[in-house]
Every structure is written in C-alpha cells, then in structure tokens.
Amino acid sequence: MDDFLRLSATTARFTYGAPRALAFGDDARLLWFLRSTGPTDPFDSLWVLDTATGAESRLADPRELCPEPGPLPVAERRLRQRIRLVAAGIGSYALSGDGLRAVFALYGRLFEVAADGGAPKEIPAAGPAMDPRPNSDGSRTAYVADDALYVAPDGRVSPDDGARWGVAEFAAAEELHRARGHWWSPDGVTLLAARVDESALQRRYFTDPAHPEVPAEDFAYPVAGGPNADVQLWVLGTGEGKSANEGGGEGGEGTLVRLDWDAATYPYVSDAGWESAEEILLTVQDRLQQTVLLLSADPATGRTRELSRTTHPQWVDPLVPGTPARLADGRMLTAADTPGGGARALAVDGELLTGDGIQVRRVAGVHEDRLLIEAAVRDPSEQQVLLLDPATGELTPVADGPGVHTVSASAGTLLLTSADADGVRRLVRTADGRESIPADLSEPMPYRVAPILERVTEHAIPTALVLPRDHVPGRRLPVLMDSYGGPCAQDVSAEPRRWQARQWWADQGFAVVTVDNRGTANVSPAHTHAVYRGFSDVTLDDQVAALHALAARHGDLDLGRVGVRGWSYGGYLAAMAVLRRPDVFHAAAAGAPPTDFRYYDTAYTERYLGLPQDHPEVYERDSLIADAPGLSRPLLLITGLADDNVHPSHTLRLSQALTDAGRPHQLLALPGVTHMLPGGNREKLMALELEFFRRELA
C-alpha cells in the first residue's frame, strides 16, 4: 500500500483519537465522551469534560480494565455490526438519569464509574453481558446476557420462555434505527422490555473456509416475503405480584404487563420509551411502512391509545429523529411531507410548521423555548442548525456557515459540531457564555478537498466531481464513478472525511464522479420516493444521465474509459452498470452487492419493492442473476465471507450464473471479513481495485 492507504488504514480513516458518543450529564455540567489516546490507537477510553472549566478527565481505560481481552460476545459483535461501530475498547456507554455515573460493557464484563473520580468498579454479571443501562440514580443496572434480561444486583427479571429479551431484533437494529430493547422507568424500579421470538425465521449460516475446524455460525434472518420476528413490549416490575393481563407469565417475583396494540397490523416497533412514570410512548408501523402510529400506553394495564397517525401511499420515510414528540403545551410534533413531496417538514397537531424551503433532518430538543433543529436550507449537501418557533414558524440561525453542522443541547448548553473542507470542529457553549473544546487527537486529514458540486438533469440530481490535484485543463481523464446510490444514504455532502479516499483515487489519474441519483436521501421526499416499486431503472438511468451532463460541462472527462466501483448497494449499482449498460461503463468492481432482493431483509426491501409474492415482476426486474449471460465488460466481484448483512451467497449466486453462462469474471472472497471491512481491509481492496482499473481502462 502507498502512504495514503497505509495512513488511512492505521487511523481508521482518520477517526481514531476523535471524540465520539458525546452526551451531557448533570444538567450540562458534564460532557461525557469516548476517545482513544491518539491517531493510531484503536482502543476508546471513557472521558468526561467539565463544561465550567474545560478540564478533561479519563475515567476508564479499557487496557487497564481488560489487559488480556477475549473475543467479543457474539450478541455484542452483531450489535456492533448493526450500528457500524468499528472502534475497539469501550464501544458505548449509558448514563444514569442524573448523568453522574456511567456503565459500559467490555468484552462481556460490566463496569460502572462515577464522574467525580474513583476507579471503575466491576458489576458482577450472570454471563457475557451487553447493552447495560443504569436506572435514574445509578443504583441498579439492567443488562442482557444469553438473551435474558437481568438487573444487577437483583438477578434475572425476564421469563425463561425461549424468547430473546431486552434486545432489538435484526430488522429494528439494521433498518428501523432502534438498536436497544429495554428502558428504565423514571423512578428506576420498572423496566419496559422487548420480547423477541425469532423461531419462525430462516437461519443463515457462515463458515470460515480458512478455518475448517471451526463450527459454522448461524443466526435468524428475516427474508423478504417471509416471517418477521414476533416483537412484544412488556412492563417488568420488581415487586410481588402476578401477571396483570392475559398472556403474562412467571418472571421472577415481579409483575408482567404486556402492551396491547394491533401487532398483527403494525408489527414493527421503531421507537419506545417512558414519557413519565404513568405513560409510555411507542411508535409502530405496518409491514409496508405506509402507516406509522404514535401510541400512548398505560404501564399499569397495557392499554394503548392513538396519539398521531402518519400515512403515505408509497412509504413513510424513516422518522425524523426527535419526532414524534409532545410539546410543552401538550400539542404533538410530527414529521410530514409538504404537498408534492418538495420537503421533509414538521407539523404540529397535523398543521405544517415548515415549508418547501427547508429540509428538516433532526429535532435536537428545546433551547430558549424554541425547537432546536438540523436542516438544509440552501443545498442538500449542507446542513444548518436553527431555532424554530413552534408558534410562528420563525427560524433563527445558530450555525449556518458552509458545511455540515450538528448540535446537542442540555439545560441551555450547546455542543456544536461543524464539518467543512477545513476539517471538523467541536465547541461547547454554556448557558452563561463560556466556551470549551473537547480535544481532538485524530490524524489531520491529508487532503483539503473541494469537490465541484453541481445539480444536473431535469431532476436536479446532486453530483460531485473530484479532479487530480495536479490536473492540467485539456488533459483527458478516465472516469471513475464512485457512488452508493441507494435509499437512506447520501454521498454528495460537505462532510470532509468522505472525500479523502476519492481525492486519492483522483490523484491516481481519474476524474472521480459521485451521483446521488433519485432514491437517495436528504434531497426531498419526491426525490427519495422515485424508486417506489423498482430500484434498478431509476438508479441506473440517473447515473448515466448525470455522467453525460457532467461530461458536457467538463470536457476533460473521457467517456470512452468509464469505470464504476461501489460497496453494498453501490456494489449492486456497479455490477448492474456493466451488465446492463456496457455502452457506457467499461469496467466495474462490485463489493458486497445484493444481487437478488428476494434474499435480502424484510424491513428494507419491502418498504420499497413491496412483498415479492405480490410483485414478483418487480423483484425479477431488479435481480441481476438473469443479466449474467450478457456480461461483456471486465467485472471484479468482492464479498466478505462473514457478512451478516449482505450474505456472501448474493455474490456467489451471481458468480455461479456468470460461470454457467461462460462469462469470464474475477471473484475475490475474503474469509472472516464482514460488511464493515474492518482492520484496513478497505484500503487493501482499494489497492487491488486500482490495479484492476488501471489494467482495464488503460
């Protein structure tokens, strides 16, 4: 590998040493976060910053607590896959209600630490533990071990009924943005817990051909058109009592109350939590995600009532974080689309509060009696922080310079993060005007990249062009298309880290083009919903049209030499490009492509394509297997053999079809490698891809 690839690999793409997972505690007196000791240290420690003085203290060092760590418990390893967590050491933590202490899991062991000093203390656990959550005063900690829910120091609190308790099922964690499965009540004596029954699901298996002596690993996977996990929510008390409603069972000494909603119609639980000791709020969705309900539940009886309903004839976009929510005056804040799908907006009691001029992406809380929101007001590649008056709709900028700005808030204190071509900066600003900066020990990004951003075609598709730093106008360049292209993702953004590798590719002699075709996120609901009942045609048509539009504006793009690369949906796009449009694309490197969505998961696939038994023609049209006999361009297929998201069978099925059709191709199968490409694997693959494209596009 060259110097850039080596540096990118050893610094985890310039993230080691940067503070992450920042959270306020003790009415914003404290700012907790995770950070390693420097740019090549992968082990995150737990730190706290005193916002009054700016002083930082390291509270827990994983290498001191576990000098000889064993492997991660399987359940925690899979959870890290779901939330795309690559750091070693302390992966996550949870704060007590007062924010004065934290608990965390470390290689299956549990620890707690107080902000006011003292060494971390180990919490005895019943088995390899994950996802610990302290109650309001930190006196008790709930955690999951061997698919059961425990409370330390009390013991097991979930029934022994063969189900998984206290966890998020695959669909929730991978596709619905809910990675947790248990929540403490405000008084710290009662738990809301998910019960997950996966007995009806298909099993997926992995084996490592490099280690044939190791048994195969399996897990439950919800395949499109097949059964989902049966998810229930239960209130688990700790006092003497019996089941409070029908369906309860023996669960230690506590009462069990099942929350009652029409789970047959609304099987997905995308959010849940306690609004008060007397009320639980939960968000549920129908299978095709065309109707989303916010429900209020009585924890004493389990009865629910509907607070709000959001519907869409295609699908309701993933909920704007921070919504639905009850405002201080009792009104309901929800996300909504403006007429015609021009913008993702906010509504109060069903009445639109924002319009087409602002794309709302997150509600971060309340600050100075106004809503604190993240939104795009100029271009989808940027994001601003604004205050929104829920009474008048008036907007006041908080952080609105060029770039991508995010915010967290507590008790009048703000944590502002700003990312642009010059890097990433974090600033803590207290209610009384004091400022401090959490130290960033990460490797500075080697390139200052300013991609050429343009909106092209009649659909105003966002595009980016990165040229070699030494490019001389008039020199023709082969083109490398480098896009993801799929739903729920955005490539064309002012966030600087995503352009470092693309600048490296450009410096190897390519014009690097990135296109957010219709179907991708954060442009508008209409832009996203264009792939309803079909991925392939819209994705590929927009990529081709955008490429040609850019070439018309930039004469140095050589359309006689066009390569395309991508991973996951981007791998699907790359393989599809050479299979279906060899007149445009001349070589492709396709990593982890979902080649046939009949074998992908329910919550993602059915949202866009419907049920395969109802729309078989849609799934057939979007499958790449039947295209195999037509391959006429060089194709490099790549898959990780431990990928539990896009199972390696996707790649192997396409390779088999190509082989059966007598179509030459290359296959790179990586033992032990997951969907996240950990440990420098991404950079190793980039070096191999570079050799491939130089050879095929010479």
Structural write-up:
With 698 residues, the chain is an alpha+beta fold. The protein folds into four domains: 1-154, Lipocalin; 157-167 and 179-311, no CATH class; 335-427, no CATH class; 452-696, Alpha/Beta hydrolase fold, catalytic domain (Rossmann fold, 3-Layer(aba) Sandwich). Helix content is 16%, strand content 34%. The protein is built from twelve helices and 44 strands. An eight-stranded mixed β-sheet has the order 37-38-40-39-41-42-43-44, with helices on both faces. Strands 1, 2, 3, 4 and 5 form a five-stranded mixed β-sheet that branches. Strands 14, 15, 16, 19 and 20 form a five-stranded antiparallel β-sheet that branches. Helix 1 (3-10) runs antiparallel to helix 12 (681-696). The longest helix has 18 residues, at 536-553. It starts with a helix and ends with a helix. The model is unreliable at 239-253 (pLDDT under 50).
Q: What topology, given as strand order, has the largest sheet?
A: 37-38-40-39-41-42-43-44
Q: What's the shape?
A: globular
Structural class comes to alpha+beta
What's the number of helices? Answer: 12
CATH architecture of the largest domain: 3-Layer(aba) Sandwich
Tell me the radius of gyration.
25 Å
Sheet-strand content, in percent, reads: 25-35%
Query: Strand count, sense and closure of the main sheet?
Result: 8 strands, mixed
What count of structural domains?
A: 4
Mean pLDDT: 94
First-residue to last-residue Cα separation = 21 Å
- Under the CATH scheme, which class of the largest domain? Alpha Beta
| CATH topology category name of the largest domain | Rossmann fold
Looking at CATH, the homologous superfamily of the largest domain is: Alpha/Beta hydrolase fold, catalytic domain
Q: List segments where confidence is low: pLDDT < 50 over at least 5 consecutive residues.
A: 239-253
Q: Helicity, in percent?
A: 10-25%
Total beta strands: 44
